[in-house]
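User: I'm preparing a small set of examples for a lab meeting where we compare how different chains pack in three dimensions. I only have the primary sequence for this one, and I'd like the structure in token form so I can line it up with the others. Please keep the answer compact; I'll paste it straight into my notes.
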Amino acid sequence: VTATQKNGVHLTVDGDNHKFEGTLYLNGQSSTGTSKSLAIKNFNFETADSARDFISCNTDAVRYARNITIENCTFKGAGNDSDGAVLRLRQCYDIHVKDCVATDVHSFAQITSSHDMTFEGVTVNGGRGFNLQNAAHGVVEFNNCDITATKADGYGIRVQAIADKALTINNTTINAFEPIVLRGAKKSFTLYVNNSELNEGGEYEIVIIGETPVIYIDGLLYGGQKKNIAVDTLDELKAALEDSAAAVIELAEGEYDLNDKIYYMGAEKLIKAAAGSNTVIKGKLVANADLTVANVKFAPNAISSTNLDSGTYGTYVVNNYSAIVTVNKVAAYL
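Assistant: Understood. Below is the structure token output for the 334-residue chain.
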């Protein structure tokens, strides 16, 4: 069946919970007209054909389907080893999928060069999840979804992480060998993951191919968060030193004895106290990024026999001891 869109026509197709064993083809007529929409509701799609896609818009002649809503549909494919996807779309706009369930499919989505996509309340149990190739344009958002990819190398959500675009994942569970894959990643791409569970079968929850983008996990900037922590006790200082999110550690006046334990820091940190306070840290720190100290003194210890005052430390040698040793960026022994 082919649904052909025309500008000025807004169509709803209601399956009334009947079974549909074919492919629903979307024809946008390669027209850029924006005043058209198509709602597909209450269908039970099912196939035994391992190569069949359920909803397709995948050639130059039919591209530019726009304002597509797919709601309250089920999709049962020929098995997780099949080649059929729920959605196989190319150059489409404003795709909204809500309250749908897919099982025994190759994947839920194979979408190329499309704009503005939301998936809400979607449950997938298939070989793979969502492949949004060259597709991270405009809004791309997942809300309250449950995605399971059973293939040994399966992905949950895989996107082309292009410059100045974003992917948002809220309240979603992903079980996959690679839950999130960012391909061709650019530094200005942003990933937001909020209140979600990523269960990886491989080595990483988030796989980055390319440059390191901006990643927020539950509101914190991953790998270098701008998070201020106020410290009043020794235990709070120890926790803050080991917290990669603690970019700024604000110390109450006093002496903090780390008892010669070495603390490792993987991101830039500012350790500061109030001007004029008598605040001292005794111990050893290791950092692979710059450490800035303001109004805090580091007392002599087994490695350093000299106090280190306020400043930013790059390469620093104290009495022939390597207080800061270059390893990649900077590894600092204070």
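A couple of notes for your slides: The CA atoms of residues 117 and 312 lie 45 Å apart. The first strand starts at residue 2 and ends at 4.

User: Perfect, thanks.
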